[in-house]
What does this fold into?
Amino acid sequence: MTTNDLWAPLSERASTSAPALRTSVSGALETQLRHWTYRAISSDSTLLDRIVLRCDLREYRRCRRHDVVEGVEPANDFDPELDHVAYCTPAATLPDVVDAWLHLTAPVPTARTLPVIPKRPTTKAEIILAAVGGLSELQPRFELRRELQQLLDDSRSAYTLRPDKAGLRQRVDPTVEALAEAAVASASQDPARGSAGAHLKRAWTAAYALNPDPGKAYSEAIKAVEAAAHATVEPKNSKATLGSMIKVMENTRDRWVVGIGSEPSSAGAETVTRMMRLLWTGQTSRHGGSYPTRDETVAEARAAVYLAVALLNFFIDGILAKQAPES
It folds into this structure.
């Protein structure tokens, strides 16, 4: 669902801009998230201790909410620890609790959780029983994920489920995301581009994670461009960096052309070089020095990822090409 597809109050529908996303947990969403968290963890209480450890939550025994009133018997199914996690966790930490549950109940099993195949032949009845048992275990988790996505959409939250449903992430325009995915796929299918696709994927994930890592996102964006450009710009230099490749292109600017328009143009190649230099010089935390270094912001990191997506396409699709020297 795109930002423009999210429901907006009638008073805001006249605006041509996309509805503003809520970057914090609103009061209304907080209430619903707490109820959802209680249902989610109660569906498999074995996850409770792991979520508490992952999110470093305060012990329920230190919370006065759970003091038992003298003369009042608690309900038979009352679990003070679960109740504490769901209803006493600070609102700002709730997304981390939800993210931990999603990761622990990820729908795609890992190799360690695959069932052991019996040595004796498996009958059709056993196969059917196993399938039904597996579905009965997974169905509540699928439904809980559907409910969670609905809550996030209705509240216009800046958070949404990841495509693999194994965690939360920041919302991003699907058109932009499709361009990034296409660049990752193209790079992964071209051996000459090395690990460009893997680096770009890590950069994207770090930039739009529940808790973004801008330094990692920016660094991986640079590595993605270095891997994509290496075979084209400095194939014989095993120690090539984005900085060295920029110098090569600037020193041989007359030989680089971009295939846009009726004839390839060197003017377009200069634009590509400037994009590469902007990416290279914009990384504020790359080197230390006598002056304090500044970490990249989330906005800068995402801009770097966008630059990397565009640059990868220039190199992978052969839009930027090097002409042979004139004889």
